Amino acid sequence: MLLSMTGYGKASAEYGSKKITAEIKSLNSKALDLQTRIAPIYREKEMDIRAMISTTLERGKVDFCLYIERDDASAATPINRPIFKAYVEQMRSIRDEMEIDDPEEHWFSTVLRLPDVMTKVEVAELTDEEWEVARSVVQQSIDHLMDFRRQEGAALEKKFHEKVDNIEALLGQIEPYEQARVEKIRNRIVDALNSIPEVQVDRNRLEQEMIYYIEKLDINEEKQRLRNHLNYFRETMQSGHGQGKKLGFIAQEMGREINTTGSKSNIAEMQNIVVRMKDELEQIKEQVLNVM
Predict the structure, then answer these.
(1) How far is CA 267 from the centre of its chain?
(2) Please, how many CA atoms are within 13 Å of residue 56, restricted to the half-sphere of its CB?
(3) Least confident of 37-46, 116-125, 230-239
(4) What is the pLDDT of residues 154-174, one digit of tens each?
């Protein structure tokens, strides 16, 4: 079964007054390109988190975020009471010393704007219990992303089967025109020679040249190789995930055979079919970039 490199996962859990949330999303990339944003309290575990992600995801441009939300009461920024009191005492001392009147505006709002009065207290230490909760959240987000990748992979596999079948059907439509064009080529050459007056034609040599010319336009080998590539593409899809690069290489080989067939197709009907085959293949090439 194929896996897509595109995915999204999110998970949350409550721990005390905190809500721990992990979000992860991935897009296609040739290798693993991992960017992380982690709340300060969990930064000591960043290498563990990276190992969890890289072991499971393998490839893709991955953005990961681990953050904390608090309830309103715990999220309120506390006032540093000793510093507030010290500022007030200093201001009163200066007022008495300089014998100045109190300001019209109450000191309270002024003092709150002074340095270090409003202090955001962060928990400095990460307990084992909290890390187990956070670790579980990280793993759940990765699992959800993998579920998303499987769903997308199944849709891609269905699309690839459809496109491969279309190319194979179009290849079969070429055969009637291929057989008829041999006679058309022969008649065209003979008519051209007959239109030239007083020309003596060596029939044996003419037959040899026509056979040589027709053999150069023969596409039986290209058709057989293309069929082999189509079957190999199907087999590779069934061999498991991690086949994205291999499918890309097979698609390139399919393109070579289709292009060669097009260069040898000297009648409009065959060329039109080749164009349609190229269109189907181009859609495979675009989507195969998303395969793990």
Answers:
(1) 40
(2) 22
(3) 116-125
(4) 999 999 999 999 999 999 998
What is residue 67's predicted lDDT score, i.e. its pLDDT? 94
Query: Residues with Cβ < 8 Å from 178, sequence gap 6 or more?
Result: 219, 270
Fold of 7-74+126-149: Ribosomal Protein S5; domain 2 (3.30.230)
Cβ proximity of 177 and 269 under 8 Å = yes
Strands (E), 41-162: 60-70
Return d(Cα 66, Cα 13) in angstroms, integer: 12
Distance CA(234)–CA(165), nearest Å, equals: 10
- C-alpha distances in angstroms, 223 versus 24, 92, 172, 268, 284? 45, 97, 9, 18, 19
- Per-domain boundaries in the chain: 7-74+126-149, 78-112, 151-288
> Cα–Cα distances in Å, from 50 out to 7, 11, 117, 132, 163?
17, 17, 38, 16, 37
DSSP E strand stretches across 6-59: 7-15, 18-27, 32-38
CA dist 186 and 209 (Å) reads: 10
pLDDT band of 105, cuts 50, 70, 90: low
Q: Which of 4, 1, 11 is nearest to 142 (CA)?
A: 11
- The alpha carbon of 154 is separated from its chain's Cα centroid by a whole number of angstroms, namely 15
CB contact set of 140 (below 8 Å; sequence gap of 6+): 9, 11, 22
Judge whether 27 and 54 are in contact, CB under 8 Å. Answer: no
Report the DSSP beta bridge partners of residue 79: 118
pTM > 0.85: no
